């Protein structure tokens, strides 16, 4: 399956890496040696060199309970990075936002994918994405970031995420968004307990029936704190294990912080998958 990101084609028959580039004021604190823009671009280039095929640029922290970022601040953070990165690279740039105006300006600056944790439920988002004809990742989230981890509750989490995808796909169709521009994401950690996350990971293949690429974002997530009891900077091995399970259960794209390590893991996965005769 070849997916078209505004003219840049990506073969999704083998799993691809989306590298996370967070542009928040505290994410590049270095004592003032470099400015934030240079640091962000350096990190993007390092992720590209390490094997990322998509760079996900985000200027709004979606941490549970995080303070909201204004549209103006979000634009000021992400636009210079997208513009500069586009000047020096053909890499697929994803904009991690739920705000239509940020989507519009990010795409004008060179972004070729909209990654919306709110799955285009913000006012005007569906219409805008239809107008821009840009691919979109629709992520499932129960409730809002501020409250989602208070009391996640499902009768059957896999069935409810499935029903959510059906509803959003129908809303997209109604708005005129073509199905071949849509990526689905169960939204690990977004209004889910550990058990919900594990059930979604175990049953990820059930979402293959939509015949759309599946994206899995598991990297460093707090679900691992409950399994390995380690802080966020020590969850690499847990994250790699989960990413491997995700790709073997059908994920076409994994969204990760540790690109080099994930790329090695996927090389081993691909080597085993491709070997085809006894000798
Ligand atoms: C705090 C908590 C900071 C959670 C950041 C996060 C996803 C995403 C994020 C995902 C897609 C993180 C998250 N997660 N977009 N954006 N899928 N499509 O751990 O799972 O990076 S933000």
Task: Provide a quick synopsis of the model.
With 279 residues, this protein is α/β, with parallel strands linked by helices.
Order of helices and strands: EEEHEHEHEHEHEHEHHEH
CATH architecture: Alpha-Beta Barrel
Rg from C-alpha positions? 18 Å
The ligands found in this model are: ligand 7PM
Number of helices: 9
DSSP E strands, number: 10
Quickly give the structural class: alpha/beta
What is the CA-CA span between the terminal residues?
A: 30 Å
Q: Beta-strand level of the residues, as a percent range?
A: 15-25%
CATH H level: which superfamily? Dihydropteroate synthase-like
- Biggest sheet: strands, sense, closure? 8 strands, parallel
| Subunit arrangement of the protein | single chain
Report the top-level CATH class: Alpha Beta
User: Would you tell me which CATH topology applies?
Assistant: TIM Barrel
State the helical fraction: 40-55%
Average pLDDT across residues?
94
Number of domains: 1
Strand order of the largest sheet: 8-7-6-5-4-3-10-9
